[in-house]
Amino acid sequence: MAAVERRRHASAVRPRSYQDESYQHGFLGPVGDLQKAGVLQDVVLEVEGRRVPCHRLVLSAASPYFRPMFTSDMAESRQKTVVLQGLDADLFGEILSYIYSGNLHVSLDKVQPLYQAADLLQLDYVRDTCSSYMAMNVERSTCVDLYKFADVFYVESVLKRCLQCIYRHFKKVALSDEFCSLSVNQLTEIISHDELDVKKETTVWEAVVRWVQHSREDRLHHLPSILPHIRFNLLTPYNMVAILDHPLVREDPGRSAIRNVVKEAFNEKKRVGMDTLEMAMIFPEDNAEFKPGDHGMLFMNPQKGKYIKCSYSKEDLLLAPTTITVTSDNDIYILAREEPDFSQLTVLEFNNADNVWQSAGLPSVRWPDNIVIENHRLVEFYGVLYLFSAGRTPYTESMFLQMKKYNWHKDEWQECSQLRFDREERTSESLAVSCGPQLYFIMNTYMFRYDPSEDCWCKLTPPKVIPEACTAVSMGTEIFCTDREFSKTMVYDTVSDRWKELQGWPTLDPGMLASSTAPSLFVLDNQLHVWLQPYVVATDELEDHLIFVYDRSTDAWKDLKVNLPYNHYSQGEPMTPVARIYLPGLTS
Fold it and tell me: In terms of CB atoms within 10 Å, which end of the chain has fewer, N or C?
């Protein structure tokens, strides 16, 4: 019995470890103060002629690079001044600032040499932070430069993001000066992939020609090794002959080998861009009620006679999307509610290749409980996502427009300037659209233009004749919008700040329009379309869908006589986004 009691007592009093977080957090402060005051320093580091007194103990604790230097029999352990090679003096100052304070400042112009310095000094946190920063800043203007760096240092996360960006924007990237600075191995790595978003294989050949001609004497001999990565079987006979007759091939000493490569081309797969089609997307009526095989999203191009219905579960899309946008880079985003807290919204991105909706990796958006949001609009403008949220405060009933923009560099939603309205205005009947170099917010009695560079709004001429505005699209310098009753379509000229009514509106049964769901405008293949889904009042069943296309030259609407798959499609917030869709992804 005594033995049992002893074991129980030993268990109760066994040693434990404690951490003094205030000591851990407060330690670097005094250490940094010692460095600033020049106290207790016992070694001088010299970088590019600049001498910086430091503490051996601090350097050894922070970096595996310095530890053996100062704790072993190396010559540096006995020297008062240690010269460091291969480092930039200014960047080493940033490194020392991090070692003594834990704070790290990263910018796009310094991130690559900062990564190199961190790699040399074996500072894992700095290196990982630089990697994350580079990956977060991969875009069309930076992807080639970051790719070259990531390829040399094999920064896998950055390498993957860069290649994805280059594949997606290959046609425009190939026209840049940075593209011509690629090595031959980097060039062949890129053009060998299926994921290139090109509609014609001649785009790849033209990119190769431009790369070779950038430094013809040095690069011409690489042509026989590059050409096997061009898919000649995807070229027309005319283009094949044109390539064989091209001066680069005709004048090259190894032209016979090149001709053999062209003639013996294997049966290569199509590139991703060759199987894309611009399509409008129509969403189900209630994603919360999804049943696989019953409700699904429709992808359509009526003039091409292409209709593909795909089903997604409630888990795929959370709850019904509140707003959808397609960016200029063809990214498809939706803002969807999260359960159980419906006031919290998350951004999902469509992975076309795998036909799935997945997290876009953006922070969730949440509003205070003391406001009511009646309408969300997600709009992309020059690579930046803007979220318009129109609503009211329950007690004062004052109406407002709150706008946030997503900062890709800081990975956060940032507040923009707000708008406030009279109580009589219904923010639920509001529209947001980008057109040209600005963003527009449209209501019946208010209209504003937002200048992102100045973060300011200016007042414009409102339409005043569409009290229930429900859908708007831009085309060229014009904005088209219509009301829920589908009674008229107004056209706004952004240059002259004038509205006018679009003539030639299709003649339809007024009873059909009165019982229809809200119309949706969309631009497909550079033509204005409108989609309508009428109900039969007596039976509350859906009639055939109506899709019209507008011919500006004849001022007439043409009924496309569509035959869409049966479904209850969402028209609470009319949204018919248009994107280039990779067709094998929908059918695989």
Answer: N
Beta carbons of 222 and 211 less than 8 angstroms apart: no
User: In b/e form, how buried is each residue of 314-331, taking b as 16+ CB within 10 angstroms?
Assistant: bebbbebbbbbbbbeebb
**Domains delineated in the chain:** 25-136 (3.30.710.10), 169-270 (1.25.40.420), 273-587 (2.120.10.80)
Is 226 in contact with 184 (CB distance < 8 Å)?
yes
pLDDT tens digits, one per residue of 70-103: 777 766 666 778 788 878 888 888 888 887 777 7
Helices (H), 290-331: 314-317
Residue 463 has pLDDT above 70, yes or no: yes
Check: CB of residue 319 under 8 Å from CB of residue 342. yes
Entry pTM: 0.72
Write down the H helix ranges in 220-367: 223-226, 237-244, 247-250, 255-263, 314-317
Please give the structure tokens belonging to residue 438: 């600005």
Secondary structure string (H, E, C) spanning 349-375: EEECCCCEEEECCCCCEECCCCCEEEE
Confidence band of 17 (pLDDT split at 50, 70, 90): very low
Other beta carbons within 10 angstroms of residue 501's beta carbon come to 12
Q: Which residue has the tokens 């429900």?
A: 470
**How many residues are given for the chain?**
588
What is the per-residue pLDDT across 374-399, written as a single tens digit (0 to 9) for each?
A: 778 888 887 788 988 877 776 666 77
Nearest by Cα to 548 from 488, 505, 485, 503: 505
Look up tokens 């005709």; give the residue: 250
Q: Quick: pLDDT tens for 1-15.
A: 444 454 444 444 555
How far is the C-alpha of 254 from the C-alpha of 222, rounded, in Å?
10
